[in-house]
Amino acid sequence: METLARFGYAAKGFVYGAIAILALLAAFSIGGKTTNTTGALQTISQQSFGKLLLILIAIGLVGYVLWLLIQAIKDPEHQGTDAKGIFSRLGYALTATAYMGVASNAALLAFGSSKSAGGNSSQQDWTATLMQQPLGRWIVGLGGALVMGIGCYRIYQAYKTKFRQELNLSQLDSQQKSWLVNISRFGIAARGVVFIMIGFFVLQAAHQYNPQKVQGLDGVLYTLTQQPFGKALLALMAFGLLSYAIYLLLQARFRRIKIN
């Protein structure tokens, strides 16, 4: 299970690396595009050996999902049963659900299906359905605030280097540790900014009663391009997502993984 979990972190890192490279190319006007995980998988499918890569990504993400479910249910890292622990374990379960969808998309594309779940349209459909329920608008707004809170906590984690205790970097010298920790901090902070922007889009949807306002990662990247100095902002975020991909690869190699 440990090997599968590490493979999962690597697969997730590969996908985020693809998103970052596509965004970076777009920022420098040499091709590329602003996209999300679904778009990245579609781009991978069009490359040489793309189908094989998608199969490996799908297997890896299934491993990542299983590891998240173990964290949520068995609590091998002793998050506990207090409010903070339950919130963390619930987060693992929700993340597992999301990445099961990404794994399914990868598998569908690998076997030649043009149908893949996810993307902004799916998020907007779910939001529209929820808004039609009693108190649905308030629930959507609360969800947006929660996502923004998660983003702020990610930035706090980056600032305090709380992720450092998850990694066993004893094999590296002090300069290597410093470089990798700082790259990871930049990546985690960039991911936090993405969460904050996504949460803001959800709050807008609730405030304006318009589910079309809900956007995912591709919407975040596109929004950056529409601001003053948009290309520079996109490049900065692309470097941040690339740093996040490197952080995930560090997790694959150096994370302390306790199954029992």
Q: Any descriptors?
A:
globular, 9 helices, 260 residues, mainly alpha
Structure description:
There is one protein chain. It contains nine helices and no strands. It starts with a helix and ends in a 6-residue tail after the last helix. It is mainly α and 260 residues long. The longest helix has 35 residues, at 174-208. Helix content is 74%, strand content 0%. The model has no long low-confidence stretch (mean pLDDT 90). The protein has helices spanning 2-27, 37-45, 50-73, 83-110, 120-131, 136-160, 174-208, 217-225, 230-254. It has two domains: 1-117 and 229-260, no CATH class; 120-215, no CATH class. α2 packs antiparallel against α3, α2 runs parallel beside α4 and α8 (217-225) runs antiparallel to α9.
List the helices and strands and how they pair.
Layout: H1 2-27, H2 37-45, H3 50-73, H4 83-110, H5 120-131, H6 136-160, H7 174-208, H8 217-225, H9 230-254
Short description:
The chain has nine helices and no strands.
- Most strands sheet: none
Structural class: mainly alpha
Rg measurement, Å:
18 Å
Unreliable segments of 5+ consecutive residues: none
